[in-house]
Amino acid sequence: MQKKERFRRFIEYFTEHFPEPQTELNFSNPYELLVAVILSAQCTDKRINQITPALFARFPEPESLAAASADEIFTYIRSVSYPNNKARHLAGMGRMLMERFGGEVPGSLEELQQLPGVGRKTANVILSIVYNLPTMAVDTHVFRVSHRLGLAPLTATTPLAVEKALMAYIPKQHVPRAHHWLILHGRYICLARSPKCDACPLKDFCKYYEKLTGKARVSVM
Ligand code: SF4
Questions:
Q1: How many domains does the chain have?
Q2: What integer pLDDT is reported at residue 185 of this predicted model?
Q3: Ligand 1 lined by 149 (C-beta under 6 Å)
Q4: What is the pLDDT of residues 164-198, one digit of tens each?
Q5: Residue finishing a domain among 75, 101, 129
Q6: Is 204 a catalytic residue?
Q7: Do 16 and 71 share a domain, yes or no?
Q8: Contact indicator for 53, 28 with CB cutoff of 8 Å
Q9: Is there a catalytic annotation at residue 86?
Q10: Measured in angstroms, how far is the CA atom of residue 200 from the centroid of ligand 1?
């Protein structure tokens, strides 16, 4: 099957069945989303949603976060992965938001990536959700599912290469939703170790499944 056809069927399926996918992180403004996405690296959204109510109550805006010490922030996030690093990042991020961006979450990739704890993936999430821009954040689910479906070539071995491969074929108006579609599919169906292929609605055009049923030897990405 041609790659273009795989993309067409991928978009067609999700547009029909999940027209309005959302992030599973709880937030009520761009600042809260930024904090939640920084915390969610190497951690589950469920865990982040458990700790953010108290965190947001204590630090409801960048100003209070900027005035806090990393030690105090740590006490609110101790149950997430890498709490020491993330506490330092949040303290620095709050200060930079106040000192350089007037307390507002900036709206460009370059500016966002200046913030402590914010890499390309986090910046792309913010641009997509807050600013509704056609950016593709590639996390572990997007990376894996894109390869298995055959949307990204096996030669795309970095998140940036996968991002470029996806952006080359997904029409701009679908990009923000496609990010969520790939994440949710990876989280609930196309699991890393045991993909639920028999129950997967995408198996008719999945490259991994084609090889699997053709008895070809495949590696799980
Ligand atoms: S058929 Fe299997 S490998 Fe392909 S997308 Fe579905 S769960 Fe993933």
A1: 2
A2: 98
A3: yes
A4: 999 999 999 999 999 999 999 999 999 999 999 99
A5: 129
A6: no
A7: no
A8: no
A9: no
A10: 6
Please give the structure tokens belonging to residue 66.
Answer: 């900027």
Give a yes or no: residue 195 inside a domain.
yes
For residue 116, what is the domain's CATH number? Answer: 1.10.340.30
**Ligand 1 contacts CB of residue 33 (under 6 A):** no
Q: How far is the CA of 122 from the centre of ligand 1 (A)?
A: 26
Atom nearest to 206 CA in ligand 1:
4
At residue 67, the pLDDT reads: 98
**Which amino acid type is present at position 84?**
N
User: Could you tell me if residue 178 is inside a domain?
Assistant: yes
Q: Which of 191, 200, 221 to mutate to test the pocket of ligand 1 (most atoms within 8 A of CB)?
A: 200
Which residue ranges of the chain lie beneath pLDDT 50?
215-220
